[in-house]
Amino acid sequence: MAIDEHPGTDSSAAPAECRRARAALGAFVAGGLGEAQLRSLRQHTLGCPECAIEFRQDVELAARIARERRLERERRERELRRSERLRQARGALFGPRSMLLRTVFVPGLLIFMLSRAFPLGGGARVYALEGSYSLGVRTLDAEDRPQVVRRGEWIVTPADASAKLERKDRGAVRIAGSSMICAEDRELERLLLHAGSIEIDGPTLVTTPFGTVEVLEGSALLALERDALLVEVRSGRARVLNAFGQRLLAAGGTASLTSTGL
Ligand SMILES: [Zn+2]
Predict the structure, then answer these.
(1) 64 C-alpha to center of ligand 1: Å?
(2) What pLDDT does residue 222 have?
(3) Ligand 1 centre and the CA of 66: distance in Å?
(4) Which pLDDT does position 246 carry in this prediction?
(5) Contacts of 217 (CB under 8 A, 6+ apart)
């Protein structure tokens, strides 16, 4: 029985060679065709235009499927990378090893707890030595805890009282008798002496109605009288300054600042 070599696209009516070729095409599209099988398939399509058309269509289909698979894979990889970046970002912000946690929250909490445990903090505190003193509108005595002094707050001691100001990273200030001082900053590095006398230990700038005293190092005694400021340097050195000039005083040196001279 003679067999038509080119029976059309109906594979059931195709000769055995074409049926094998069509089966190989199916395997090719599915991606499961070896090198030798592919070669014999190509060989057949060279002599069989019907299968050649099928082959070309299937090659195009296979290429389209492969392209779609690749695009899908790339899309999934992009999504995976994106969710991984998000996960890392969330971990960096809030995770147990987070930079934000290590650099902001934990140190902040520690500073807060330390400031609660040690109210001195970066500023200074005052407490009564004898009698009672006033800090702003409050009256306090030896029964009270040391108080944090705020910038602009007045500390007043009556005639029979004295108080001590402890400062961070510098010496103390003692205020006694009928005296009034004001904190110009919260470290009490700068003071206003309005009345009475203070004993200063450590670098301090004191402003008075008769002039300014800058204790550079060591300690000094300042007494504000009705018409003069008396300064006595006990150790180290201090600089006194008013509208009439300035002087540097060494240990043991004294000065009298008035409204008419130095
Ligand atoms: Zn064929």
Answers:
(1) 23
(2) 95
(3) 25
(4) 93
(5) 202, 203, 236, 237
